[in-house]
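General statements about sequence and structure are easier to judge against a single worked case. In the encoding step, the backbone of a single protein was reduced to a row of integers, each denoting a local shape. The record that follows shows the chain in one-letter code together with its fold in token form.
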Amino acid sequence: MTSDEVWEARRTSFGSGAANYAAGRPGYPREVVEACLPRGAGRVLDLAAGTGPLTTALLELGLSVVAVEPLDDMRAFVPAAAEAIAGTAEQIPLPDESVDAVFVGQAWHWFDVPKAVAECARVLRPGGTLNPMWNLLDASDPLSLRLSDIAMVDQCSARMLDNPNPPFAANDLFSTPRRTLTRYRLGYTWERVEAFIRSTSVMILAGDDQRDRVLTEAREAMPDGEFELSFICEAWSATKLQGTRQ
């Protein structure tokens, strides 16, 4: 396959791994989500919501949440308290200026960015915020680094945080994005780690032999019982400028 075909296959692969995604993926720290909200926010959008780990964090803050997700199998796991609808970042099925913030967890890199930026600006009220964020395995923690080396190289902080550029270029729609990095720890068991590994696009598309080798090596590297993994949440936040027109 060409690089474009590989990218498209990975981008659309997650539906078959939805149950593993729901079981294995980390959530998002409350303090990160709160810091990205504009004052007085009430209704927010979780764009490319997946199975809803970021939706859950937003609901816990008492917000009204619209979760837009293109894959039926993923959207089925979104918490019932949210309004879950089919749609994409390039064609958001919401009216103009209808939400106070747009959140994107672990998905911005799959978007057609110029189209997504324009659509996010369209659905945001002036003064609303656009907030792409990623959970990365913390390379300063030996166990998290070992897991990333074995199974998730492209989710390691050592690889992903060396680029200080924002995920979209400065433009006349948004303020300059600001970046925050938040380290946190989460409890895991081998079963949850296995689900985490199986939820990645690389492992979903891998052959059985490759997947089995990775899982065997990871199992040997992880402790028995309950243990903690260290993550870094990289969050970017930009404010829609007053008076922007689409």
User: Anything to note?
Assistant: The mean pLDDT is 92.
